[in-house]
Amino acid sequence: MSKTDKTNPKTDWGGIAKNGMWDNNVVLAQSLALCPLLAVTGTATNGLGLGLATTFVLVQSGYLVSVLRGIITPQVRIPVFVLIIAALVTLVDLAMNAWMHDLHKVLGLFIPLIVTNCAILGRAESFASRNRVMPAAFDGLMMGLGFTMVLMAVGAIREIIGSGTLFANASMLLGDAMGFLELTLIPDYRGFLLMILPPGGFIALGVLLAGKRLLDRGVAARRLAGPDQASGPEGQGAVA
Amino acid sequence: MTTVSNPTYRQRVGYQAGLLGGFSLVAAALLVMGDIATRDTIAERNAEDLLASLAQVIPASMHDNDLLANTMKLELAPGPEAADADDAAGPLIVYRALQGLDVKAVAFEVVGQGYSGPIHLLLGVDAGGRVLGARVLAHTETPGLGDKIEVDRDDWILAFDGRSLEDPTAERWAVKKDGGIFDQFSGATITPRAVVKAVKAGLTLFESHQDTLTASAVMVEEVPTD
Fold it and tell me: What phi, psi does A239 have (nearest 5°)?
C-alpha cells in the first residue's frame, strides 16, 4: 500500500481519508473507545465536544510522533508515545477547565480518559511512527473526524429519542453565536429514559454498526454485479 | 549491527534511558507551563461556580459582602452520620452573609446518605434559624427517579424554604410515609428521606452553634491566606 511504502514518495491522501472516516473507523470498524462513547453521548453537543478534544490530541500526537520517529527507538517507543499522549491530554484538560469551564464540568473525567483511548496509541504505533509528518497528521485528523461523526450520530439518536431535543447546550461548546442550533424537536416531550441510560447507548451503537455492515455489503454486492453487467453475456472472471 | 538508519549508539541502554528521561523532562516542563498559564483562570471559574451555588441559597438582597471573603471554619466531632472519610476530616466551612458587621445568614454544606451514595447539599439558613434554601450540589441517585431532588428537574426541593426546627415540629420533619409533611417520590423513598434528614441535621447543627455563627463580624486587617 502506497501509504506505508517508504520508497514511494506519493501519499495516498484519499486512501488515508477513506480509511479513517469509514473503512477503519475507530468505533464502527475497530470497536475502540466504546466506554467514552457510551458515557458521553447523552446529547449531541457532548459527543461533539469530546470528539473535537480527541481529534486535537490525535492530530498533535500524530504530528509529534512522526517528527520524532527518527530518534525514538523501538525498545522504548510505547512509553514515549504514552508520555506524549498523556502530556497532550493534560494540557487539553487544563485548557478546557480554564476556557470552556461549563463543558469541562459536563464531560468530567472523560477528558483525562482520552489518554486510555486505544485508537490514539494505535495510530501512533501503526501509522505515525512509520510515515512522514503531513500524512501522519492528516491520518490523525481523519481518524478523529470519523470518531467525532460517530459520537455525534449516537448522541443525536439518543438525544432526539430520549429528550426530544437536538444540540441542547450547543452554546456551551460553540459560543453564544451558535445558540440557534439548539432545537426542541418534540415539544413537551415526556422523555424516553432508556435512551439516556447506558442500554440506549448500546442499542444506538448496535443500530449504527448494523447499518454500516449493510451499506458495506450493498456496495460490495453492487461492485461484484457491476463488471458482469457491463461486460455483457461474455462475462468476465472473478472480480479481484 | 549498525546501519545508517539504526546506528549502534541507539541500541545502547544509556541512549534509551537518556531518551526516556529527556522526554519526561520536556513533558514535565510543558505541563508546568500549562499549569501556570491556567491556574488563575481555573481558580476564578471555581470561585464563580461556588458563588453561583451560594446565590441560590442566600438571596443577594440579604447581604452586601463577598460571601467567599467571610468564611468561618467550624471544628466538628465526626458524628454517627459522618458520611465518608472526606467529611470526617477537616472543619466545616461556613459562608457568612453580612450586612455591615451583622450576620444575616449563613450557608454550609450538609451530606445525606442517599440510595446510591452521599448526597451533598448546600443549605442556607438565616440568623433566626429559618431555611432560606437548600440545593443539591452533587449526588449519584437514580436518573429519572431520585434525581427529582435537583431544582432543575422538580420543585420538590423548594418545599424546605422558610422551614425551621419549629415549623414543622420535630416529629413531622420526615416524608409523608413516615408521618411527616414532605412528599416522597413514587418509586423512590430513600432519596427524599435522606435529603429531609440532612436538612434537619443541618438546622440542628446551626442551632447548636448559633451564637458562634451569628456573632458579629469584627473588623480585622486583611490577613493574606495561602
Answer: -80, 140
Q: Number of structural domains, chain A?
A: 1
* Same-domain check for residues B100 and B195: yes
Q: Do B19 and A90 touch (CB under 8 A)?
A: no
b/e code B41-60 from CB counts within 10 Å (16+ = b): ebeebeeeeeeebbebbbee
Q: What is the ipTM of this complex?
A: 0.76
The answer to whether the CB atoms of B27 and A86 lie below 8 A apart is: yes
Q: Identify whether B138 is part of a domain.
A: yes
Q: Across the interface, do A94 and B16 touch by the CB < 8 Å criterion?
A: no
In a domain, A172, yes or no: yes
pLDDT, tens digit (0-9, with 9 covering 90-100), for A198-234: 899 999 999 999 999 999 999 999 998 877 655 445 4
How many structural domains comprise chain B? 2
B117-126/B102-114 β-pairing:
antiparallel
> pLDDT tens digit string along A139-181?
999 999 999 999 999 999 999 998 888 888 787 777 777 777 8
Percent share of chain B, pLDDT over 90: 36
Same domain for B86 and B52: no
Backbone CA torsion sign across A84, A85, A86, A92: positive
How far, in whole angstroms, is CA A163 from its chain's centroid?
A: 24
Q: Same domain, yes or no, for B108 and B181?
A: yes
Answer whether residue B220 is part of any domain.
no
Q: Are residues B79 and B35 in the same domain?
A: no
- Assessment of whether the complete model's pTM goes beyond 0.80: no
Measured CA to CA, the distance from residue B177 to residue B174 in angstroms comes to 8
What digits encode the pLDDT tens for the residues B8-30?
777 888 889 999 999 999 999 99
The last residue of one of the domains, among B20, B40, B57, is: B57
Q: What does chain A come to in residues? A: 240
Q: Whole domain around residue A99: which residue ranges?
A: 12-224
Choosing among A85, A91, A100, A163, which should be mutated to test the B contact, i.e. which has the most B CBs within 10 A? A91
When CB atoms are compared, the residue of A75, A86, A98 closest to B41 is: A98
Query: Domain of B115?
Result: 61-214
pLDDT tier at B5 (50, 70, 90 boundaries)?
A: low
Asked whether the predicted pLDDT for residue B86 surpasses 70, the reply is no
